[in-house]
Amino acid sequence: xxxxxxxxxxxxxxxxxxxxxxxxxxxxxxxxxxxxxxxxxxxxxxxxxxxxxxxxxxxxxxxxxxxxxxxxxxxxxxxxxxxxxxxxxxxxxxxxxxxxxxxxxxxxxxxxxxxxxxxxxxxxx
Length: 125
Hints:
- By secondary structure, the protein is an all-alpha fold.
- 78% of the residues lie in helices and 0% in strands.
- The protein is built from seven helices and no strands.
- It has helices at 3-16, 18-27, 33-47, 55-68, 75-85, 89-102, 105-124.
- α4 packs parallel to α6.
- The mean pLDDT is 97.
- Pfam families: CMD (PF02627).
- Its EC number is 4.1.1.44.
């Protein structure tokens, strides 16, 4: 493994939480191991590891980009990560308002629905 992988794993655990990463690692197979290594090095070891913007800002950007591009399946995971990144519910709502204006109301509306469901689940846990 590379230093970037080790850095990525540290950042990934900090942002997503130990339990999430442990589950993902346990589910990893020989088939998807190269993909997991690539995203750990690139997404977590490079992009999320950068200190040019805060984790809070990065959370808001990530959620907005996921919603704008219609990649809704990762929104709940990144909503849960806001508990560790410092992005508030108000921050997330603002990010999704930007999505509505620049990428479309239906995408922002669906993202808000997912966020509300995920926040409700988090409050029950």
